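During the reporting period the student researcher (J.K.) took over the structure-prediction task from the postdoctoral fellow and processed the backlog of single-chain submissions. One of the processed entries is reproduced below for the supervisory committee.
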Amino acid sequence: MKKKVCIGLSGGVDSSVAAYLLKEQGYDVFALFMINWKETTGTLTAECTWEDDVIFAEMTAKKLDIPFHVVDLSDFYRTRVVDYMFAEYEKGRTPNPDVLCNREIKFDIFMQKALELGADYVATGHYCRREVSQIKGIETFSLLEGLDPNKDQSYFLCQLNQYQLSKSLFPIGHLLKPEVREIARKQGLVTAERKDSQGICFVGKVDLPLFLQQKLEPKKGNVILIPADFSAKKKISDRSKDNLPKLTAPFPFKPWQGSIIGEHNGAHFYTIGQRKGLNIGGFVEPLFVLAIDVVRNIVYVGEGKEHPGLYRPGLFIERNEIHWIRPDRALNPGEEFNFLVRIRYRQPLEKATMIMAEEGAYFLFREEQRGVTSGQFATWYDGEELVGSGVIA
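J.K. obtained the following structure tokens:
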């Protein structure tokens, strides 16, 4: 009997080709389109993106002759993803809603709906790979990078667990993006030349301050310039384990350490490393956000992209925020391991040592990293395998 697979058909070329490949592999395939966001406040388009997407998805399903269903998950998306996003920005952290969308919606609520409809597996158009092996007699699932270095999306799936991976298929993870488009052209799929989606998962491109003003009120505050020589003097050179908390924490800038150069409309609208949106001129080099203080409502900035205040030697993840995709690889307090670490999507992997303590995990990088941001997900890899992830403190 054929295994039944639900393809999350989004209206884009990747999921369309994934659906085609599954049929070619002999699976009994049906499509499920999810509606996650219906509002337009703060978006940079006057239309709901899902209304266009569902048309393309249904046309693709008809072309491939597979059953097509629609499920409205917008209430779940608001409570599990968007409300979390607002709460994190309010705390002065920068969340990654795409990671949350995959953990909370696509591979949780959506997966439940698909399984209720009789699916044995759920497939998506993500550029990543799944590997199955036997470890000490236990079936173990590994999440590997996609083979296209420019499209690898394993980062966005960094919060998946063993059960979710056991029910997941990633049919295009071994392909390059141009190969995916060529398959779509040869099969006459209407999505072949459709542009990739951008912005927040299922919301699209947004004017972030305007989007956040649905819940967070604008409030005037000071922009304070921190001199580069001050930040350089405050760097900690001793990388011993006794200094781990200081080496991995954001630098605690104070108002008296710099000078007021302007105003902003709310510290919670900014993020570390941000350049645009400050609207303050008169400097030789561009200004970048070094830190934000939502309690005092202050935005600290530095001049130039190489400002020392933008760089940190490490990061910390609290114990309850650590997630192991491979629980058998988990470190115990006192243990350490050299991983390749990514602190944001598309950032190159960097060598770092993970040092496990009772309170959480410390990461010390071989070279200081620019723009380490609280609220973002750090992911750690061993070779091409994504082993675990966690929210940066």
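The committee noted the following: The first helix runs from residue 13 to 24.
J.K. will present the remaining backlog at the next meeting.
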